[in-house]
Cytidylate kinase
Amino acid sequence: MIIAVDGPAASGKGTIARALAAHFGLPCLDTGLLYRAVGVQVLRDGGDPENEADALAACAFDDALLADPELKTEIAGAAASRVSAIPAVRAALVARQRAFAAQPGGAVLDGRDIGTVIAPDADAKLFVKATPHVRARRRHDELVRLGHDDISFDRVLADIRARDLRDSTRAAAPLRPADDAALLDTSYMDIDAAVDRAISLVEDRL
Ligand code: C5P
């Protein structure tokens, strides 16, 4: 069983994907981490996240980087959004994501193009969304919790809008729901309600 969970930043898709994985007993891959690792590696190498040669070289990042807390920062997210618009970078990360999806018992993957590109034959596809304001509020609360209280709400909202625009207008695998995805708007749901709804949407599709 393959479950694809796509959606914009801070929509709740990561939490929902992990909860689905726990519920159905499947491994889970947060594919955003791969793009974040490439973005952080480019910056560490002194390269430009919009330069194809720099970004491609960074695709050879060491796996240990995937566990680095630096990947969670807004700087990493912005660099990820830039490298991920480069088709050669996306191509370099496809095999790894498909191999994860092809594990014997199945898997849950979350990202932007799982239902459209990585696993178009997934058994269940969810597209998780929420208004930019709600997502910025969640991301800002999380940053404050992590001690980054020097960043304003307006700045987080502007970053979210910029990332949405870049992710949905790029030519390579733009952020969009697959035609057969179930839409889940979490704007006015708490996380428990969103997870319950996600489980029932997946069960409906099996
Ligand atoms: O989901 P997360 O915020 O960690 O993703 C960081 C960035 O990586 C996104 O803004 C997007 O540009 C890119 N990404 C992508 N395709 C994926 C996952 C993430 O393009 N499957």
The chain has two domains: 1-27+106-203, 32-102. The chain has nine helices and five strands. Residues 32-102 form one domain.
